[in-house]
# Entry
Amino acid sequence: MIKVVKFGGSSLADAKQFQKVKQIVQNDDARRFVIVSATGRIHKKDNKITDLLYLCHAHLKYHVNCDAIFQMIEERFLSIQKELNLKYPITKDLNQLKEAMNKSIPLDYLVSRGEYLTAKLMAEYLGYTFLDAKDLIYFSYDGKIDFMKTKAMMEHALQENDRFVIPGFYGAMPDGQVKIMARGGSDITGAIIAKIVHADVYENWTDVSGILMGDPRIIHEPRRIDKITYSELRELSYMGANVLHEDAIFPVKEENIPINIRNTNEPHNPGTLIMEAEDEMQSDQVSPITGIAGRKDFTVVAIYKNHMSNEVGIIRRALSVFEKYQISIEHIPSGIDSFSVVVNSADIKDKIYEIVAELKTECHSDQVKVIDGIALIATVGRHMSSRPGISGQLFAVLGNNDINIRMIAQGSDEINIIVGVENKDFEKTIQVIYEHFVSQPHMMLSDRSDQS
# Structure
């Protein structure tokens, strides 16, 4: 068996966390490929190394001294080295980096050093080979991962050794220049490696024991999701459940490699297993839903026109206006004589008057209405389609709690129901849905009995 294991920044915050990581890796001989993020926060008021490196670059750009910030970075790495009695000459690397820090230092190179230095220390501590991501993960000039070249480099490396520590979050362009990924990119690095080595499991170790059914800031002690499909995870991630970078799903999904979300601080907790094989996803859970997630601050642009259903091309013309202003579309709920375009409020706030004017011209509409302050909440579950009446119950329980639904959308695969409510009702909506379908599933069952 082969396991690719990725450890997030909170799992690598100090020497004690390094010790936990080593124990986890040594407890299973299948954990041969270790991907690390940059050292994270030790406590809530602490700073992530990556954030400090970004801050250094901002200071350098405007000719502001950043010695105090860099000293914080040095102290963190030197503390880990000293406490673990490591021999790697990290002082030399830190001094070389400091000497290179001027206005012209590339942002991607500077910021990537957090993962690089963390991986150097971890490789020695585990006794694994260090493999630099810039010599392994390759991008094409269009910014996409070059899987063929990356695979060839990994296969070459495997000829010499079969246990590696690899820094996440960055790779190299065809000319060798370091390129970083989006924040959370170490998840993607792990998924790419898992795909290339045909891993049996991709373990993603963080500071939570799996994916929760709801936001713990809103719901008190929400239940952990034992098993979830890739599709369900995509829906929850898109709507704000940020345990795993959503782009990390695609490489492993193509190979049907399970992802296991685990907690470095609770290594015996099985966490959440993400996989697609339906025959292995059977569950005896009472609730038909898998999870609830949502986001605030959307804008609904509603276009009204009599006899719209008989007109060809009106939605296309409307969408071309949003495309012109490079506005990403979230949802397009429609009626007989109207349809709405749901967008992120931040994307449209400075362009709304121009967009409304052009929509009226392009669509010859009778009215264009703008509704701000909308929150979208997704109720996700693969079991919903086999349980009649779920939508009815969802809408009824919101109505019974005086929550006004401003928008409804449901995917054709019937694994999610999205409702739009006012921002002020965001937390209440999530609480009400959770209470009905998860905390008190017997209420749902009795409702079905009453209907029969």
